[in-house]
Amino acid sequence: MKPINPNSRLSLIVVLAAITTLAPAVHAAEFSVVEASIPEIQAALRDGRVTSRDLVTQYLVRIALYENTLNAAISVNPRALEVADALDRERAAGQVRGPLHGIPIAIKDNIHTTDMPTTAGTLALDGFIPPYEATLVTNLRASGAVIIAKTVMTEMAHWMTMGIPQNYSALGGYGFNPYDWRRDPRPGLNDGRGVLPTGSSSSGAGTAASLWAANIGTETTVSIIGPASAAMLAAVKPTLGRISRWGVIPVTYDQDTAGPMTRTVTDAAILLGVLEGTAPDPNDPAAGRCTPPPGNDYTPFLNAEGLRGARIGMPRAWFIDPHTLPGSEAPGGGLPDDQKAMMDEVVALLRDAGATVVDPADVPSALADTWEDNVLVRGSCSRRPSLKGDDANCSVVLKYGFKRDFTSWVTSLGAAAPVKSLTELREWNLANSALGTLKYGQHTLDLSDEQDPTLEEDRIRYEADRALDLRLAGAEGIDAVMILHDLDALIFAGSRGSSFLAKAGYPSVTVPFGMVANGGEFPEGFIPKPAPLGVTFSGTACSEPHLLELAFAFEQITKRRRPPEL
């Protein structure tokens, strides 16, 4: 473990806060936050074995110990102890708001808070305090959660440029995976990034290392399921619209959603109900697509026998086995042998638990032999060049949606907006390149800024691509394969199916499971540590209750999560 850097503003704040609160936390030693679940923490609070102040103190100490190793937090809430004290007073008076009362939670740094900066990791937003809070933050606070920190993220949720390392931002630097936090030694990759990928733009490092009880990520294509799988966490990527996107810096509202990242499926179910809220948010046009369960409580669906009689499909073509796509001369996709072996073990475990596994259950639109009908061949217009006039063979949904929704987000800020347009943000980055704004460039922002949602030509192209995404990912994709085989869910290795599912806005639940090789050629003498890989259950719109049931049952028969060795 590296020593605390005394010049680190974050580390200094954390150390001072921790030291000044150690004295009152004598009885906290009776309860450890390490690997503690939300129900376990709540029971300790209820029994008087710990207070919310004790919890915040323990987590602050752990942040102080490990932050310079992991760089999991971009900021720590200076009011966390004050909030904890207020919640402790409420509990003492007999008022308990719910299952998160007094429990510290971290949120991604693209989610608005009015007591901490919201920066998306970009220097142009350094210190920016939004004029309003995200609806999901309002829901968390109403439930009694203590928002203890903001987590690091890939700058602009990975819509800065392709090729930027996962969990790198100009403001926050490099974030690391707690299962191997060493720097990558390979030529061309030895720029400071971690040797073990973090999974995508959200970070699961702090939750995996018990720096807080759980965290909230956001996903456009892969950034909840991916980082959860990479940090041996459970997570729910919900149906688009189940959790309000109001107050979240967007990539595109066509695919964006927030979701919980936790150490157990039970914790994820608890958080999902809180994040969803009791009524549709009028600020989110997608709200109300799904009906919340009674009392916003998903825990009644957590059935240890939930796999018995279930029908689960495993797509093999491209997702597990190599498959030749239209326009290609050789097979692509597939998994390495150790990951294939892991999925074979998963199938055996599911069958032993009483499930019927349809293997293969291939996705029709992934098997289509024409370019126009195959869901896997038309990637997003995000890689070079992909500019107007050179984007016929990719989807404009993300680059168009970012321009449209970033403009809408800036407008919602009124006079408080730190930049007034995407053009102004790009120009600011160029003018301040000496500060490190463009270490990896801003090509994706450039692609988006040339889009013009007021032009009929751009709008027509976007609408055609969006309709194609919905058809191939939804009706002719996951809906088709599930109807064909009468399935309750599909399973994937980690985030393997996430990008395809995100186009339809469909939900997934991932469960910690295996350790696989961190592949690649490494210098002599450098031995990479194994990488976590989860198992993901996916379904059609609004199927979270059943997916949680299946995922919980699988978690109970496997219990493979292991904390990182820090």
Task: Give your account of this protein's structure.
With 566 residues, the chain is α/β, with parallel strands linked by helices. The protein has a domain at 311-506: Amidase signature (AS) enzymes (Alpha-Beta Complex), CATH 3.90.1300.10. Helices cover 34% and strands 11% of the residues. It contains 16 helices and 13 strands. The protein has helices spanning 9-21, 38-47, 52-70, 80-92, 135-142, 205-208, 225-230, 265-276, 337-352, 364-367, 397-413, 422-431, 443-449, 456-485, 498-504, 544-558, and strands at residues 73-76, 104-108, 146-151, 168-169, 173-174, 214-219, 234-237, 257-262, 311-313, 356-358, 489-493, 508-516, 531-538. The strands form 2 sheets. Strands 1-3-2-6-8-7-12-13-11-9-10 form an 11-stranded mixed β-sheet, sandwiched between helices. It has a two-stranded antiparallel ribbon with strand order 4-5. Strand 9, helix 9 (337-352) and strand 10 form a beta-alpha-beta unit. It is globular. The termini are close together. The relative contact order is 0.12. Residues 1-9 and 22-26 have low confidence and may be disordered.
